[in-house]
Amino acid sequence: QVQLVESGGGLVQAGGSLRLSCAASGRNLNSYAMAWFRQALGKVREFVAAITWSGGSTYYVDSVKVRFTIARDKSKNTVPFQMNSLKPENTAVYYCAASTIVSRTTASYPYWGQGTQVTVSS
User: Fold this and answer.
1) Tens of pLDDT along 10-24?
2) Coil, helix or strand for 62?
């Protein structure tokens, strides 16, 4: 069983930055594809970014390309997620997820963290 824990959320002004992190207990994340999803109040959970198990390929929703960066820190067994130039519409609970395959769909990910709140004020 893979247990994921997100950290780094908080309140930031528009234009600011936050760095989220996803850590795991019980398993080495280096053999899993990892992703970040988000869910705004009253909306469905949506894909934001993903990275392959090797870290060789990354994928983003168009609205966050250039501003957000997903990576792997294999030495720490974590998946950092840098978010720059944040906008109020980025406000949501952000979840990390793990799977044996990289995908943009929630159904492809069997392992999820509890989420961390990101709030961007205007």
Assistant:
1) 999 999 999 999 999
2) helix
